Structure formats: C-alpha cells, structure tokens
From TrEMBL:
<feature type="domain" description="Rhodanese">
    <location>
        <begin position="148"/>
        <end position="249"/>
    </location>
</feature>
<dbReference type="Pfam" id="PF17773">
    <property type="entry name" value="UPF0176_N"/>
</dbReference>
<dbReference type="InterPro" id="IPR036873">
    <property type="entry name" value="Rhodanese-like_dom_sf"/>
</dbReference>
<dbReference type="InterPro" id="IPR040503">
    <property type="entry name" value="TRHO_N"/>
</dbReference>
<dbReference type="InterPro" id="IPR020936">
    <property type="entry name" value="TrhO"/>
</dbReference>
<feature type="region of interest" description="Disordered">
    <location>
        <begin position="311"/>
        <end position="346"/>
    </location>
</feature>
<protein>
    <recommendedName>
        <fullName>Rhodanese domain-containing protein</fullName>
    </recommendedName>
</protein>
<dbReference type="Pfam" id="PF00581">
    <property type="entry name" value="Rhodanese"/>
</dbReference>
<feature type="compositionally biased region" description="Basic and acidic residues">
    <location>
        <begin position="311"/>
        <end position="329"/>
    </location>
</feature>
<dbReference type="InterPro" id="IPR001763">
    <property type="entry name" value="Rhodanese-like_dom"/>
</dbReference>
C-alpha cells in the first residue's frame, strides 16, 4: 500500500518541503484490477476537477492499466492532493521534490491506451505489469554492486537525448529515440552481450518497471533468450539522487526531467546547466542557446532542419507560453497561490 500523506514529508539537500512554494509530485501505478473502458472517462473528469481545484499543473495519463504523470501544486495543497490521489489509486507510487514556482504552465488529464507506450508486442505476449516484474533493487549499495558486476548488463531504458546529459557509470545506452524502440534493442543487447543477469532503470521507475515485465515475458516465450534474473532500480534515478550523496554516487551528470527544470542533480536540485528546447525536448546548454539556429520555442540546433515542424504553430505556442509566464509571475508577486475555487486560465 502507498504511504499516507502524513509520512510523505521529506528533507532534500538541507531544506524541508516547507521552504519552497510548490511541490512537484511524480506518480504512477499499474493496477492489478484494470479500469474498464466505460470508467475511464469518469475517472478522467473526476481527476481533472480535483486537480483544478488545487491549482495543479502538469500532465496526467490514465489508461485501463493505471495512471502516470507529474504535476506541480502549491505546497499548501500538497497534503490534500496526495489524499485525493490515494482515494482514487491506493497503490500509487510517488516521488516529491520542491521548487520556487510551478514547473508546468497548464493542466492536462488525458485518457490513453497505455500509461507508458511500449509499442506493438508479439500477439502471444501479454504483459501483467501489476504482478509480473523484475526484482526491485533499492537505491544505494545494492544497486551500485550491480553496476560493478561484470556478469550483469545494466541498461538505461530512457531515450538517447536523456542519457546524453547523465547516466550511471557502466550503464548500457540502447540508443533509442522513443520507448517503443526499446523492446527490439533489449533483445539485441541480451543476444550480443550474453549477460548472466540484467538490471534496468529509468527516471522515476515506470519505464523500467514495464521493461522488466517485457523482459520476463521475452525469457518465457523466446527460446533464444536464456533464463536469467531481471532487476530494476526502485524509484528510478530520482530516488537514487535523493538518497545517495554525491561523494558516494555512481551517477554521472544530471537527470533529465520533462518539465521546466530540464534536469535535476543530487538532492533533486534543479539544473544550472541545461534548459529544454520546447519543440524537440532536447536539453540545451548555454552554448547551444547562443547558436544561430536557436530561437526560443521555435527551433534549436537539433530540430532547426526538420521540415516537418510547423514554425508558425511553434511561434504562436511560444507567444502563449510567454503570456502564461507573465500571468504566473504576476500571481507570485501578489504573494498567494490560487484559491481552491478559482479556475485555471492559461
């Protein structure tokens, strides 16, 4: 069962949650009893109404298999939001970090076929992520031991652009552009490297959890894949960075996150090195942003030559984002979070 809201308060890198104005809640769960198609729309509407009431922003995905998302809320509403989420999803896994302002501009609650998309799988392969996953390994010495084990293939399940700014020492980069490419790459890694065990990790735990479920099915159904132990990092990189101090860490660089902070370092402190291209989501250094191809919200060195992207649409989106920023800053200058009864207009 998920911990109660009372047990959630955490100390991060020398300050408590009460020192920051906003709580960022990363959350997911795979449900043992799947949600029916008929229930999904009702759950989506209920969640959206609840989160709007507490001025939450971010993206939440709901599907028959469960829920996945990251939201930011005024810290004064953190307890209320956690209790509301627990009422809907008692087995929810979550990770908290804190920031001076909202890290998202608006709220989206969407119904999707999957809460994390792995793509098409063989017709005889059915994943039961709620019940059939690899062994959890807590962040710290046990995980570090797997990284140093020559018989273990430790695989980063994230995308290539995420891995470029930080990953674990000795981890394998499968060089994927999306998670849908990962199943094929996992099979190749196992066949080429022939490890005696495999371990996987991701940002917050959801992708590697589903990846281990796939790996177990692959082992059970593919005669070319040996029967080997499968592990994954409990809580993902975020749990590791929150718990393990820099001097004892096997993580190199920073962890990419899908919000305005772009990346987090040890203690879950926001990056001072990177900002995100709002078009292609690639993390950018100060030098990248100074390049001739960079235009805020329109293009960067990684996507400027992509003719499939609509520059006018991105320019209009950037204008709307700038307006949202102005509204957020005005609200913060007034010194209060939005009340529960106010609507969100961005």
């Amino acid at each position: 069962m998920a911990p109660s809201a009372e047990s959630i308060e955490m100390v991060v890198e020398g300050y408590t949650s009460t020192d920051k104005n906003y709580s960022i809640i990363s959350l997911y769960t795979f449900l043992e009893k799947r949600i029916s198609e008929e229930q999904l729309q009702n759950i989506q509407s209920e969640l959206e109404a609840v989160l709007q009431r507490y001025d939450a922003r971010g993206t939440v995905l709901v599907a028959c298999e469960g829920i996945n998302g990251t939201i930011s809320v005024p810290h004064c509403y953190q307890r209320d939001v956690l209790l509301e989420l627990d009422n809907h999803f008692p087995t929810l896994r979550r990770r908290l970090s804190y920031h001076d302002e909202h890290v998202f501009f608006r709220l989206r609650v969407r119904v999707k076929p999957e809460i994390v998309t792995m793509g098409s799988l063989p017709s005889d392969m059915i994943l039961d992520v709620a019940n059939d996953v690899g062994a959890y390994v807590p962040p710290g010495p046990e995980w570090d031991a797997l990284l140093l084990d020559p018989e273990c293939a430790v695989i980063d399940t994230r995308n290539d652009y995420e891995i470029k700014i930080g990953t674990f020492h000795n981890a394998i980069n499968p060089h994927t552009n999306s998670f849908t490419e990962f199943p094929a790459q996992l099979k190749i890694i196992i066949q080429e490297r022939k490890p005696k065990k495999i371990a996987m990790f991701c940002t917050g735990g959801i992708r590697c959890e589903k990846a281990t479920s796939y790996a177990l099915q692959l082992i059970a159904t593919d005669p070319d894949i040996p029967n080997i132990p499968v592990y994954h990092l409990e809580g993902g990189i975020l749990a590791y960075l929150q718990i393990v101090p820099p001097l004892h860490s096997s993580f190199r660089g920073e962890c990419y996150v899908f919000d305005r902070r772009t990346a987090l370092s040890h203690g879950l402190n926001p990056s001072s090195c990177y900002q995100t291209c709002h078009v292609c989501r690639h993390p950018l250094t100060t030098e990248d942003r100074a390049g001739v191809t960079f235009q805020e919200g329109i293009s960067c060195m990684y996507c400027a030559g992509d003719s499939s992207r609509n520059r006018d649409r991105h320019a209009e989106r950037q204008r709307q984002l700038d307006l949202s920023k102005d509204k957020m800053h005005l609200q913060q200058q007034r010194g209060r979070p939005r009340s529960k009864n106010e609507s969100i207009t961005v």
